[in-house]
């Protein structure tokens, strides 16, 4: 019995990151339904984003303050301006557009378009020459092909709805929906794609910002708090009704607390740990699971209508996302192999070794 327990413990330790990422995607899927229910209840998406960022920043603040006291660099004006732009792209503008798109579509549709983030990031990185493309290399061809076909899948989702797939049984959870809002699919699609473009630029910029500000928890806290302030200013400009800021003891409060403390707070720790242990490619490989979970919950639990175009587009996007990730992962493996070969050659060269010794 003891050996069996050790065996189970060993398996759990080996696949701990996999299990955490699966639970992470399941936890993220609840964000969509809680937020969607809150919006249908009449809660303003812009107020939601403002409160979510502020709650997330306050939840991360004590951990960032105590855990990164020695590694946190001094905040200069240049760094603050960089954080301001990061907050605008990653926590304010992108989130406001994304959750506004959720108001006009549904959770399944929004997560399908979110899967194009990797493809859009690749395109922008290639334009900025951060990503190198070599059409003679099969790995680069896989990345380009995955990007093109993935965007084709998005076009199918956006422009072709197709027949409705009938629900097998009545919804287990009833969410009151305003049908006239959910008819504006094109508007919701454009908002979701625009948010992905903002996120893509944010990811590319973040890679450089972390090097200049090597305190990820503190950086995330700053981004959340500054993003909350930016979103508050924007909301006050577009929303003149003061009652929109009132949060009752209902689904609106739970959506803010869950999204801020759990999704943006706790899940940030988990995702950072998995990235450190397994790398960013490993983490992104679980993104399509979010689409599958949201689609299943939407159809079987909430009773949302699924269209044929949505299913076809989702399959194309997910398959080609993995093609893009495979090309990127193989490229990283090849780079590591080349680096090791160069290191071996340098160590075998007596003259270079003498220089190293000196």
UniProtKB/TrEMBL annotation:
Residues 17-158, 187-325 form the EamA domain. The keyword Cytoplasm does not apply. Belongs to the drug/metabolite transporter (DMT) superfamily. Plant drug/metabolite exporter (P-DME) (TC 2.A.7.4) family. GO terms for molecular function: transmembrane transporter activity. The keyword Transmembrane helix applies. It is a multi-pass membrane protein. Keywords: Membrane, Transmembrane, Transmembrane helix. Pfam families: EamA. InterPro entries: EamA_dom, EmrE-like, WAT1-related. One of its GO terms (cellular component) is membrane. It is found in: Membrane. This is WAT1-related protein. PANTHER family: WAT1-RELATED PROTEIN (PTHR31218). The chain crosses the membrane at residues 12-34, 46-67, 79-100, 112-132, 144-165, 185-205, 217-238, 253-274, 281-300, 306-327.
